[in-house]
Design brief:
The structure holds 5 protein chains of 5 kinds. Helices cover 71% and strands 0% of the residues of chain B. Chain B contains 6 helices and no strands. Chain B is mainly α. The mean pLDDT of chain C is 83. By secondary structure, chain C is an all-alpha fold. Chain C is elongated, with a radius of gyration of 17 Å. In chain E, 69% of the residues lie in helices and 7% in strands. Chain E contains 19 helices and 8 strands. Chain E has a 4-stranded mixed beta sheet. Chain E has a two-stranded antiparallel sheet with strand order 5-6. In chain E, strand 5 and strand 6 form a beta hairpin. The longest helix of chain E has 32 residues. The chains are: A mainly alpha, B mainly alpha, C mainly alpha, D mainly alpha, E alpha+beta. Chains in contact: A-B, A-C, A-D, A-E, B-C, B-D, C-D, D-E. At the A-B interface, helix 25 of A face helix 4 of B.
């Protein structure tokens, strides 16, 4: 309970701190998160990893059934809880420096705390409905945090895009929930695990996978994630690298039992496609955060693919390692951005500090950052002695465990992705830290840029340390540790090490003599024109449809009333009975029609008594004739 | 007697038609008088002497006189007779002929009931019977008719007594 | 014996001529003449129908009352016409039409 | 044949009949006294605007009303009076009571100085004579009495219509007179034919009904229609409605209020009796119900749609009253005991609502508000009057919580019941347009409040505590009360029985 | 029964209105206080009612029953109308909602400056009429209150409304009146056909009696054996259709909805609030209280129509909202969309769906109140509600922005807010329903995405970006929320949050009703 409530209290406290003392916010929030970390550690040590634990209590009655809210703790949960709380704590701490002086710092920490809470909700909950609720809520906090700097148009747009795309994915989740409820009558994961669905398994699985794909930025729903980098960098580290995007992977692992083989194949294909496209796109970009974002996309693709291939433990392990090294990378990137922003503020220069074309040679100015970046980058690349190597190894060996042709193919693609990963990581580090930028006006100022303050440096260092091998296992070449067991065959180790080294060599040779990163291909920069495709296929049609509806509303539904009235009016014009009295506000069919009739009746009322008598007599005659006839 | 009926009937219809075609209002009034008298004649041959007498007294003696009085009062220039202009010949003829044709067809097609010769009570003349009926069976209408006359008097007086200059909006 | 149809035809003729006069003539007094004709037509009916019931006097009595009423109508009517004439300087209702549908 | 035979009995009958004639005698006395005050007392003559005649007339109507009410208790069954010319029953008493109160209210509305400029005593006498004529008409079963009462009402009305003593008053009088006399002549012709066909001058008599049954012919139909014309004229029903808008527009407001209720209800009473007789109590082959239904529905529709485009408040109310006559006729269409009872309920409610509306139209007229756009802004300056007027108009429309709703509900219930009983789809076809017309009527009824409340206009606040507001409040409370407890009134009406 | 809480609830505002008649018209503050006092006493009464309400079973509570009148219809029997009040799981939450919203609307009415006296009298009458409609169990009584809402609203829009108020008020009136005429026709047919049990000659308006098929006269027009055919279709189906359309106009349902945007855009803020939060609910309430239970057979066979139109409303309303340029119009169309969920849930005829529909009514009542108040806040400051005229408001109006966020996200169905619970229940119910096709539920989920789309877009346009205001208003006019406004928003936000987190608070009232409702429908099938 401490784990869950601490971030929430942090959020609430942050909201309550008076505006004047907003610097206090970061302090209290970080402290609360520290409590959460402590709680998580206690949980991890007491809960044990082997025996799942389950507490629940009824929440509300749904039809004849009861929806309960409860906590379900197993191995994956423990891992996730640790990851979430630890990364969150460090991000809180880091933010204390990064966001210092921001006007809306209270809102920032509120949302950060709220996010952590809802993220833990996803992780701990035993109930798909509650998972879905938290799922939506992390989307909301993500929306708020991406859009934190609301004055920036791209932040505003990116936040909307992120939320919309997640929302569309959530439709799949809703559909999945509907199927689950129809066929099982319960949302309880433990119950579902034992009794399963009666029918519709593939539909349910694919529907839920749509949500996972949106949340974990899988092909083809990943385009929101690079845009989401418009948010503050710590947020990117926490949400869009370490935790929220991993929620999909986690959920997939948790309800793996709901996925029949066919659905798993789809998952694998989507994961691999994501891994490859993400890695390729990372090569095509210049924005430091976007590159990291695509890297995240790619790595998530690997995890999903692993899950699709049945490597649950390995995928979760990679999730864990990825969380640390990717958070470290983001925080380091944030440090660069933060520092250079400060520098810009003093010199008054304006250039895009996130564009690697504007950077270079930062190695000397920011040694700590460089070190962190190097370690985490190495981990990402899967160089031995770093955690990333071990987790990738675990995945690879799990995939190959089956030993069939499909496994081989998956593994091959996996290695290609790894190759690309190494390449883009090298490219990034090379151009940011190592390659000298000659002739740049800003170069002078860089010499003197200070390293970031301690509150920011400390989390970076810790995360970098956490990216080393010991986090998985004391043996740097084995992934069989506290979390996973098993060994990789020597062949896979050799092959993968070979691929990594080969890639390093290739990258060094390729980038060595370039003074500036070049555009690889438009198709990569524009991420395969997916956004354009969405614009054509979804956004614009909906916009048109919406405009059409509005027009229909005004023109046809109202127009039906008005229009048929206009016909009457035209008639009335012709006959000469129209007068301005009609235009008095009773604009509707009935009134027009009746007033037309009324005009007819009134024509008898000419004021001429002879006519009166004539019409009265004629009326009687006609009445008689009518009755007789 | 039937010849007398036809003669009276002819006179009445002719006089009525004359009104329709009369050029001058005064002539029309006089033709109406002729018509009334002829109708009185028809009453007389239909065993309704009392009605005939009333007809002559009230209509010929009263109504027509009032009307002639009215014609004179509404004559714009003294000495110049009031011409009556006509309008709506079409609608008038349409309505009148429709009613005429319709009703005559009906009358000729359907039997209304053959009149029988009245049996005269020897002891009382018709006038006697009228008197008694008027005071017994028809007492209420008689009184109401009196009231009607009173109201007519009051009403006519009100209308006539209002001296209203020809000031109008 | 005079067939009843003769009376009826006569009354219809007078009635419809009266109606025509009412509709056709423009002068209000002429209209009044037409109305009197119509009343007379009804009276002829009443008297004629009374022939079928000689022991009773309903029809004739009705006729007498109609004559009285007709006189009243004529009196009031002429008073009204005279008043209209005085106010509008005409006895032709067609020329008096302030009251009509706007 | 001995004509003297039975003479004493006849005289005795007359003597007894007088006992049932209290209200009429009071009214008659009222007329004489009122006229005498005008003639005899010179001081009144000089001013000719004194309220004394109004007061006397008011007392006369109230006493007549009281006597009619007193009659109620003894009228377990109908009594033929004066040789069978008239019949005194609860049915007639009902209309008499309504018309007496209406007459009294008219006299009250005439009270303000602006309404009594000239000839007050004659005015009072004429109003009384209209009321008296209605008394006679509602009791009449003899053709002679029907004709005489119609004429009594008519002649008084002709004069009253011109009581504004302005140009348009004279014009209205003239038109009313010419149209009315034509209608009377047509009715008389029809009555004469009916007399000829049946041989009886009393429509409720056995002889009349037998005569009708012996002559189930086209001629009878035509004769009946011609006779109906006169009643329809009194009710201002199509096609005999053409006089109403012009006359309403020109006549003084109290007189219009009188016209819109009193002759109409009297016409309705005699029409009901006539239709009851004409259908020969259900044995006739001619479908008079269908004829009346047709007339009713045309009238409702025509009245409503014509009212839609009226800008003169009085003209609008003229068309409204035409449409309302149609609704009253719907009650006759059912021609069951309940149907007629519902119609009588409707008549009472209509009377009250109409008087509310006319009372306020007069009030606003005195403040220079003549056309509907003139009402703009009065809602702000005079919310009390406009609110009460609104309730009256709502009741005429037939929306809860006013008795108008209950009345319409009952009318249509009666119609539906008749439909169930005879399974004549025609009745259903009246039901549906009847309901739709309620919607149409809303548009013109609510146009006055619409202008009063929604349109901006100059507004100077006025006093609330006026006698007109008091009067309006009383009437409105009746309307509301009859919605919440319609059984209070229906309880009385249920005591009225018919020979069906 | 000695308990007269419901009567007090109805007549307290009327009494207050009567008192208000005698207050001089220039004492604006007195009217505000009077209205608030009336609402506050109502709130106390409601709290007492809550304490007396036991929610285990679905039967009627707090019943008051008296003879109203009995009309002798001669040979045809009697017509009996009763003063019959009561609440159950359907109406009780709505009554509570009414009192709550009326209180808020009373506070938000403080900005009304012209014609204060008339304004508050109308509001009080409206208050009574709405509560009356929710608690009346006699058709005539219901119809009385139903009509009684019409005129005050007409005048509220027509007198205190915006520039096109006359058009809007007339349109509102026309539509609603047409609806009520249709309803009236059905009511007449109902009372003609139904009778008091054991007494065939007494016709009744009593809803409870009319629910029992045994109380219909054999051979009458609505005889459950369905002997009457009109145009080849059972008269009961026709009557259901009449009621459906009549209430659907009020709901409002596409394509009978066009009165709503106009009425809302032109109405003053408190009137919009009452209109959207309460009057629309009468439509849903009427369907669930009258149309469905009285014609379960017709309802089951026509449920797909109801569901289909519900989905059409959801999608169509959302799409149209997206194209709206006026903030209030957008909110109005969002109401159309959200009330579509009520139809869908009802049509599902499952316990989840029905409970979800009721939940949605309450939840929408709270949320839409916030939304219209939000639009009102802006309008109060600048008299301009065009979305495109604002940008970057978040910076200068942070409290307002927070409220907007809560309201918008609550409205688009963010978990943790009441709307989510309602919508998810409706979806779950509709998907497992046996009477409507499950594709309806799937299509309806698109409404969630569209809802997010137009709200987020609005936020992006109005609150994000750089600050500027077009259209004549000055930035200085845009001051943040005042104390009074915060007091208005706080309970609303808290309510929607509490209902989103602890749905059982409300569901324990609704569930027994939903159970009985579904049983009734299935029993009638």
């Amino acid at each position: 309970m401490v784990v869950l409530s601490a971030p929430l209290i942090s959020g609430i406290l942050s909201a309550l701190v008076p505006l004047r003392y907003s610097w206090l916010v970061s302090l209290t929030a970080s402290f609360m998160l520290l409590l959460a970390v402590a709680g998580a550690v206690v949980l991890a040590s007491t809960a044990g990893l082997e025996k799942p634990q389950h507490f629940s209590m009824p929440w509300f009655g749904l039809g004849g059934n009861t929806v309960s809210v409860g906590i379900f703790i197993d191995k994956y949960t423990v891992v996730m809880v640790l990851v979430v709380t630890i990364v969150s704590f460090f991000v809180h701490m880091y933010s204390a420096g990064y966001m210092a002086g921001d006007a809306a710092i209270r809102r920032y920490f509120v949302m950060l705390g709220f996010f952590t809470f809802t993220m833990l909700g996803i992780v701990l909950s035993d109930n798909l409905l509650v998972v879905f609720m938290c799922w939506e809520l992390v989307g909301f906090s993500s929306y708020m945090l991406i859009g934190h700097w609301m004055e920036l148009p791209e932040a505003a747009k990116a936040s909307r895009k992120a939320y919309m795309m997640n929302r569309i994915g959530d439709l799949g989740f809703v559909a999945g929930l509907m199927i689950v409820y129809r066929n099982a009558g319960t949302f309880d994961i433990t119950v579902l695990a034992t009794q399963g669905l009666q029918g519709w398994e593939i539909a349910a699985a694919l529907c839920i996978f749509v949500a996972i794909a949106a949340k974990s930025a899988q092909f083809p729903l990943f385009t929101w994630l690079p845009d989401a980098m418009a948010g503050p960098t710590p947020v990117s580290a926490l949400i869009h690298a370490a935790t929220m995007v991993a929620a999909g992977v986690f959920l997939l692992a948790r309800i793996h039992f709901l996925f029949p083989p066919l659905a798993l194949q789809v998952v694998t294909i989507a994961g691999l496609a994501t891994a490859l496209t993400g890695a390729a796109a990372a090569l095509g970009h210049f924005d430091i955060k976007k590159i990291l974002a695509y890297s995240t996309v790619s790595q998530l693709g690997l995890m999903v693919a692993a899950l699709g291939a049945g490597a649950k433990d390995a995928a979760m392990l990679h999730l864990l390692t990825h969380a640390f090294f990717k958070a470290g990378l983001f925080l380091a990137a944030g440090a660069i951005i933060h520092t250079l922003h400060q520098a810009q503020m003093s010199t008054g220069e304006t250039y895009d500090v996130q564009d690697i074309r504007n950077l270079g040679g930062l190695r000397k100015a920011m040694p700590v950052t460089f070190g962190v970046f190097l370690i985490c980058g190495a981990s990402l690349s899967g160089i031995p002695m770093f955690s990333g190597f071990q987790s990738k190894e675990a995945i690879l060996s799990s995939i190959l465990a089956g030993g069939d042709a499909v496994g081989m193919a998956v593994a091959a693609l996996f290695l290609i992705a790894t190759f690309l990963t190494v390449t883009y990581t090298f490219r990034l580090i090379w151009f940011v830290f190592i390659a000298e930028r000659s002739g740049s006006a800003s170069e002078v100022s860089w010499r003197s840029v200070p390293e970031v303050p301690f509150v920011m440096r400390f989390p970076m260092i810790v995360l970098a340390l956490a990216s080393l091998w010991w986090i998985v296992s004391l043996n740097p070449f084995s992934f069989s540790g506290w979390f996973t067991t098993g060994t990789a065959s020597a062949l896979t180790t050799v092959v993968s090490v070979g691929v990594v080294l080969g890639a390093l060599a290739f990258a060094y040779l390729f980038f060595r003599n370039r003074s500036e990163p070049s555009r690889v291909a438009d198709v990569l920069t524009n991420t395969f024109y997916l956004d354009a495709l969405y614009a054509i296929v979804v956004t614009r049609p909906v916009g048109h449809l919406s405009a059409l509806c509005a027009r229909v509303d005004r023109k046809y539904i109202d127009g039906f009333l008005h229009g048929s009235a206009y016909i009457q009016v035209t008639l009335a014009h012709i006959v000469g009975w129209f007068d301005k009295a009609v235009v008095d506000g009773f604009v509707n069919l009935v009134a027009r029609l009746t007033s037309w009739l009324g005009a007819f009746v009134r024509t008898f009322q000419s004021g001429n008594i002879h006519k009166y008598i004539f019409w009265a007599g004629m009326g009687l005659v006609l009445l008689t004739l009518y009755i007789v006839a | 007697m039937i010849y007398a009926f036809y003669i009276f009937a002819f006179i009445a219809v002719a006089a009525a038609a004359g009104i329709l075609f009369a050029r001058r209002l005064f002539h029309a009034a006089l033709l109406l008088l002729v018509c009334f008298l002829a109708v009185a004649g028809i009453y007389a041959v239909s065993y309704a002497e009392w009605v005939a007498v009333t007809q002559i007294l009230v209509y010929a003696g009263g109504v027509v006189v009032i009307i002639i009085f009215g014609i004179m009062l509404t004559t714009r220039a003294p000495g110049r007779p009031t011409a009556i202009s006509n309008s709506k010949w079409f609608s008038g003829l349409l309505l009148g002929l429709a009613v005429m044709g319709f009703l005559i067809t009906l009358f000729l097609r359907e039997t209304v009931g053959a009149p029988t010769v009245p049996l005269m009570d020897e002891r009382f003349t018709l006038v006697n019977r009228f008197g008694i009926a008027l005071m017994t069976d028809y007492l209420l209408p008689f009184e109401v008719a009196g009231l009607l006359l009173l109201i007519t008097l009051v009403g006519a007086a009100v209308i006539a007594a209002t001296r209203n200059k020809n000031t109008s909006s | 014996m005079i067939p009843i149809e003769n009376y009826l035809v006569l009354s219809v003729l007078l009635f419809s001529i009266g109606l025509m006069v009412v509709v056709i003539k423009r002068n209000a007094i002429a209209v009044l003449l037409g109305l009197e004709l119509m009343l007379n037509a009804a009276n002829i009916n009443l008297v004629a129908f009374n022939l079928a019931h000689p022991q009773r006097l309903d029809g004739q009595m009705f006729a007498v009352f109609v004559i009285i009423v007709a006189a009243c109508e004529a009196a009031v009517g002429l008073a009204i016409i005279l008043r209209a004439y005085r106010l509008f300087n005409t006895a032709v209702p067609d020329n008096i039409s302030t009251l009509k549908e706007p | 044949m001995n004509i003297e035979a039975g003479l004493p009995e006849k005289l005795e009958w007359i003597r007894q009949s007088l006992g049932f004639f209290g209200p009429e005698l009071v009214l008659f006395a009222g007329i004489i006294v009122v006229l005498c005050t005008g003639i005899v007392v010179p001081s009144l003559r000089a001013g000719s605007t004194s309220v004394a005649p109004l007061l006397i007339a008011l007392i006369a109507t109230l006493v007549a009303c009281a006597l009619s009410l007193a009659d109620w208790g003894q009228q377990e069954k109908a009594v033929d009076l004066f040789g069978g010319m008239v019949v005194n029953d609860r049915f007639s008493s009902w209309f008499k009571i309504i018309c007496d109160i209406a007459g009294a209210l008219t006299l009250l509305l005439s009270w303000p100085a602006s309404q009594r400029r000239k000839h007050v005593s004659e005015y009072a006498a004429l109003v009384l004579s209209v009321v008296l004529g209605v008394h006679f008409l509602s009791m009449s079963v003899g053709m002679i009495m029907i004709f005489l009462s119609v004429e009594l009402i008519s002649i008084s009305s002709y004069v009253l219509a011109g009581y504004s003593f302005r140009q348009e008053g004279a014009e209205a009088s003239l038109k009313y007179f010419l149209f009315g006399t034509a209608a009377a002549a047509i009715m008389l012709y029809g009555l004469s034919l009916l007399y000829g066909l049946t041989g009886s001058g009393i429509i409720s008599s056995q002889e009349f009904v037998e005569g009708l049954l012996a002559h189930q012919s086209l001629l009878l139909l035509v004769a009946g229609l011609l006779a109906l014309a006169g009643f329809l004229f009194k009710m201002a029903v199509l096609p005999m409605h053409l006089w109403a808008p012009d006359v309403y527009q020109a006549a003084p407001m109290p007189v219009v209020a009188l016209f819109s209720v009193v002759p109409k209800l009297a016409g309705l009473a005699v029409l009901t009796r006539f239709i009851l007789a004409a259908t020969a109590y259900g044995q006739s082959l001619i479908d008079w119900k269908a004829i009346i239904g047709l007339i009713a529905i045309i009238t409702i529709t025509a009245g409503n749609v014509a009212a839609l485009r009226q800008w003169n408040a009085k003209r609008m109310m003229a068309y409204s009253s035409i449409a309302q006559s149609g609704f009253l006729l719907v009650g006759v269409v059912a021609l069951t005991e309940q149907g007629i009872q519902f119609m009588m309920f409707y008549a009472a409610v209509y009377f009250v609502a109409n008087y509310v509306v006319f009372a306020y139209l007069q009030y606003f007229e005195s403040r220079g508000v003549l056309t509907i756009p003139d009402f703009a802004g009065t809602g702000r300056s005079d919310p009390a009057a406009n609110t009460l007027l609104l309730v009256g108009l709502i009741s005429l429309t037939g929306i809860p919580p006013t008795a108008g709703f209950t009345a319409k509900l009952l009318i249509f219930t009666g119609l539906y019941d008749a439909y169930r009983a005879v399974d004549d789809p025609f009745l259903l076809w009246i039901l549906i347009p009847g309901l739709l017309n309620t919607v149409i009527s809303l548009f013109f009824y609510l146009r006055i409040p619409y202008f009063a409340f929604l349109k901006e206009g100059e507004s100077t606040p006025v006093k609330y505590l006026t006698w007109i507001n008091f009067l309006g409040l009383v009437l409105v409370l009746v309307l509301l009360g009859l919605f919440f407890r319609p059984d209070l009134l229906m309880g009385w009406i249920n005591k009225i029985t018919f020979v069906l | 029964m000695p308990d007269h809480i419901l009567t007090y609830l109805i007549f307290l505002p009327i009494l207050a209105a009567f008192v208000a008649l005698f207050i001089p018209r220039d004492r604006a503050a007195w009217f505000r206080v009077l209205n608030l006092a009336a609402c506050a006493i109502q709130a106390v009464l409601v709290i007492i009612a809550i304490s007396r309400y036991s929610h285990e079973t679905g039967e009627l509570r707090l019943v008051e029953r008296m003879q109203w009148f009995t009309l002798n219809l001669g040979t045809w029997g009697n017509l009996q109308a009763e003063y019959f009040l009561g609440v159950d799981g359907l109406s009780f939450p709505l009554v509570v909602l009414t009192v709550f919203v009326m209180l808020i609307a009373g506070i938000s009415s403080w900005t009304i400056a012209k014609g204060v006296k008339g304004y508050f009298i109308l509001i009080l009458i409206l208050n009574a009429a709405v509560i009356g409609s929710f608690v009346a169990l006699d058709l005539l009584l219901f119809y009385l209150f139903f009509e009684f809402m019409l005129l005050p609203m007409f005048f509220l829009i027509g007198i205190w409304g915006g520039s096109r108020r006359e058009y809007a008020s007339i349109k509102f009136f026309l539509y609603t009146l047409c609806g009520s005429i249709l309803i009236l026709i059905a009511f007449i047919a109902l009372y003609l056909s139904g009778s008091v049990p054991g007494d065939e000659t007494t016709h009744t308006f009593n809803m409870v009696y009319l629910r029992d098929p045994g109380n219909y006269l054999a051979g009458s027009i609505l005889d459950p054996s369905g002997s009457w055919l009109i145009g080849g279709w059972s008269a009961r189906n026709w009557a259901f259709l009449l009621l459906f359309i009549g209430f659907a106009i009020k709901l409002p349902m596409v394509p009978f909805h066009t009165w709503l945007p106009d009425a809302h855009v032109e109405a003053p803020t408190p009137a919009s609030v009452i209109l959207a939060a309460l009057l629309l609910k009468i439509g849903g309430y009427g369907l669930m209280r009258i149309a469905y239970p009285l014609f379960p057979d017709a309802a089951m066979s026509l449920s797909w129509v109801v569901g289909l139109f519900g989905v059409v409303s959801i999608i169509y309303g959302a799409l149209t909202a997206m194209a709206s340029k006026d903030l209030k119009r957008l909110i109005a169309y969002s109401s159309v969309s959200h009330m579509g969920f009520v139809l869908l849930g009802m049509a599902s005829a499952t316990q989840e769906g029905v409970a979800g529909a009721v939940y949605q009514m309450v939840s929408h009542g709270v949320i839409t109140t916030m939304l219209f108040l939000i639009a009102g806040v802006l309008y109060d400051r600048t008299s301009d509600r065009m979305i495109e005229n604002y940008s970057g408001l978040a910076r200068i109006m942070p409290a307002y922005f927070a409220v907007v966020l809560i309201a918008f996200f609550a409205s688009l169905g963010l978990p943790g807010f009441s709307g989510f619970i309602a919508e998810i229940m409706v979806f779950l119910g509709a998907f497992r329903s046996e009477v409507i096709h499950l594709s309806l539920a799937v299509i309806a989920t698109l409404g969630l995405a569209l809802g997010a789309a137009y709200y987020l877009w609005t936020i992006q346009r109005m609150f994000f970006g750089t600050l500027h205001v077009r259209g004549g208003a000055a930035t200085e006019q845009l001051v943040d929320l005042g104390m009074r406004e915060k007091v208005m928003f706080l309970p609303l936000a808290a309510t929607t949050l509490i209902l989103g987190i602890f749905p059982q608070l409300l569901l324990r009232y609704i569930d027994p009703f939903a159970l009985g409702f579904v049983a009734l429908l299935n029993g009638g099938n």
